């Protein structure tokens, strides 16, 4: 994709017609894979993300096990066909870094101390990417963890804010991220005001940064409501099936 | 010998001291350890610098080569950052391909330099789409006593400022070396400032024992205008909104002081 002439039109609307502080259309479904202990699927704009959780289970190799808590392992991976130019399926340096920061974004939420000597594996597959996939991955993974019945302090939800053509915007898509001036992905547990992932690249003044954080948090809170709806939908369906 | 485990007694001591705004090595919560910068210590490299941050030691070498540009930016030079956690630097470092810690370290240093546009990459193009200069920044950790990010970022900047390029002319697309050197075009001076969170309190420049006790880490890279150009949160804890905004303010102040160690103003 080449550089668009402008990222904002005369009315101040974005390439896909969104307002500055508007999220992309978002859709979530919980419990989509039968083999996994927990799973979830999410679409956010053109992003399509699948997450699965296996565990708590025995740790292999055994020396990795911890005596006082479970270990959380996380793999963020992009499908070769998820982007314009085919991506090699081997994990890139970017994917290794993202796997680490996503794990560290989820860890504060999980009561790992309830399951000593076990492992909880989180697998995130990006089936189609259009910017903000680490955030979409976290949002999906948190649903999969909840679906697996892993006790958590709160759901983790993530959303990015950033700057394009001098204006702060919410939930950047790929072109905005690439040609914009800054990107601030943020993950949080809204129930306890805890920011569990924060990254940034680009250039922002302190004041802009403060407002971007505020904006990203507002986005997170909206997605959080959708997460809760998706979980309820899944478990109401199960309850109804039992009652029948 | 440094163990990778800190005893419960010491963990408690570190946490209690921080609660009273004190630290185990006598520093204030937002003080750095003593910093020494030595530039140009590897003659074979186009640029180099060693930074001592307390007992942490990082050596950075810059090599310049000729290569192909990225297809989406055909008229710019290429920047590559790599970090090696050399086994001689700590009992916890093992030989082998880079693990997630060294990849994260390299990528955080890379983002600070790239996002602040510290190197004038557009001046490093030889023939658009075909030949450009590639700047290799290799971070070599020699002794790990905590806060590798700040030490590496500072050493990388010092090494870049000390990097020289040979003069050349183009003849039929071939590069012909000419006598003399010129400095690498440097446009910005990004400085990384790292915080740890212990006992719900922010501390600056955590050293090894504090790193092993802290819940979470936050790095902010500040450019010469005082803008934030890169952030990275690490560790399995979290930060509150207030802590993040407080960190941004402290980082801006500390960055100005650290920058004076490598840039003459």
Please give a structural write-up:
The complex is a heterodimer of chains A (244) and B (265). Chain A is α+β, with helices and mostly antiparallel strands and 244 residues long. Chain A has one domain: GHMP Kinase, N-terminal domain (Ribosomal Protein S5, domain 2, 2-Layer Sandwich), CATH 3.30.230.70. Chain A is 30% helix and 30% strand. Chain A has 4 helices and 9 strands. Chain A has helices at 93-106, 133-147, 174-179, 206-243; strands at 26-30, 38-44, 47-58, 71-78, 118-128, 157-164, 167-170, 182-189, 194-204. In chain A, the strands form 2 sheets. Chain A has a 5-stranded mixed beta sheet with strand order 1-2-3-5-4. In chain A, a hairpin with a 2-residue loop joins strand 6 (157-164) and strand 7. In chain A, helix 1 packs across helix 2 and helix 2 runs parallel beside helix 4. The radius of gyration of chain A is 18 Å and the shape is globular. Chain A starts with 25 loop residues before the first strand and ends with a helix. With 265 residues, chain B is of the alpha+beta class. The longest helix of chain B is centred in the last third of the chain and has 22 residues, at 241-262. In chain B, strands 1, 2, 3, 4, 5 and 6 form a 6-stranded mixed beta sheet that branches. In chain B, strands 10-9-11-12 form a 4-stranded antiparallel beta sheet. Chain B has a single domain (25-262), classed as Ribosomal Protein S5, domain 2. The A-B interface holds A 93-94, 96-97, 99-101, 103-104, 107-108, 184, 188-189, 193-206, 209-210, 213, 217 and B 100, 103-104, 106-107, 111, 114-116, 216, 218, 223, 226-241, 244-245, 248-249, 252.
């Amino acid at each position: 994709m080449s550089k668009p002439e402008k990222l904002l039109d005369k009315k101040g609307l974005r390439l896909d017609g969104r307002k500055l502080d508007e999220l992309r259309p978002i859709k979530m479904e919980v419990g989509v894979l039968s083999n996994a202990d927990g799973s979830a699927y999410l679409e956010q704009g053109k992003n399509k993300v699948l997450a699965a959780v296996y565990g708590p289970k025995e740790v292999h190799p055994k020396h990795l096990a911890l005596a006082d808590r479970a270990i959380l392992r996380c793999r963020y991976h992009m499908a070769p066909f998820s982007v314009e130019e085919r991506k090699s399926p081997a994990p890139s340096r970017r994917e290794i870094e993202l796997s680490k920061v996503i794990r560290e974004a989820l860890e504060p939420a999980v009561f790992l101390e309830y399951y000593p000597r076990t492992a909880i594996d989180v697998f995130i597959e990006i089936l189609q990417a259009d910017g903000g996939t680490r955030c979409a991955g976290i949002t999906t993974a948190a649903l999969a963890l909840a679906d697996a019945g892993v006790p958590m302090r709160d759901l983790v939800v993530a959303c990015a804010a950033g700057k394009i053509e001098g204006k702060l915007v919410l939930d950047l898509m790929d072109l905005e991220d690439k040609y914009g001036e800054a990107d601030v992905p943020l993950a949080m547990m809204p129930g306890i005001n805890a920011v569990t992932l924060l990254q940034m690249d680009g250039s922002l003044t302190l004041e802009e940064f403060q407002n971007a954080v505020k904006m990203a948090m507002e986005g997170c809170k909206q997605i959080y409501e959708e997460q809760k709806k998706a979980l309820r939908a899944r478990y109401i369906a199960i309850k109804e099936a039992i009652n029948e | 010998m440094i163990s990778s485990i800190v005893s419960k007694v010491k963990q408690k001591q570190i946490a209690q001291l921080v609660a009273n705004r004190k630290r185990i090595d006598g520093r204030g919560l937002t003080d750095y350890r003593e910093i020494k910068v030595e530039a140009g210590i590897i003659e074979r490299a186009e640029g180099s610098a060693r930074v001592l941050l307390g007992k942490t030691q990082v050596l950075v070498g810059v090599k310049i080569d000729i290569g192909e540009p990225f297809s989406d930016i055909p008229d710019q030079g290429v920047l590559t950052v790599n970090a090696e956690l050399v086994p001689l630097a700590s009992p916890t470092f093992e030989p082998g391909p880079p693990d997630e810690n060294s990849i994260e370290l390299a990528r955080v240093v890379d983002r600070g330099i790239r996002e602040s546009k510290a190197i004038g990459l557009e001046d490093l193009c030889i023939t658009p789409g075909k030949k450009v200069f590639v700047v290799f920044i290799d971070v070599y950790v020699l002794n790990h006593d905590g806060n590798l990010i700040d030490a590496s970022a500072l050493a990388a900047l010092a090494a870049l400022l000390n990097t020289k390029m040979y003069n050349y002319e183009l003849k039929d697309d071939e590069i012909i070396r000419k006598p003399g050197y010129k400095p690498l075009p440097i446009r910005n001076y990004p400085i990384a400032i790292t915080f740890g969170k212990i006992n719900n309190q922010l501390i600056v420049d955590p050293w090894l024992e504090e790193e092993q006790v802290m819940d979470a880490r936050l790095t902010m890279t500040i450019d010469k205008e005082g803008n934030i150009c890169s952030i990275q949160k690490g560790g399995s804890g979290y930060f509150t909104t207030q802590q993040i905004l407080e960190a941004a303010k402290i980082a801006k102040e500390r960055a100005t002081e650290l920058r004076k160690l490598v840039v003459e103003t």
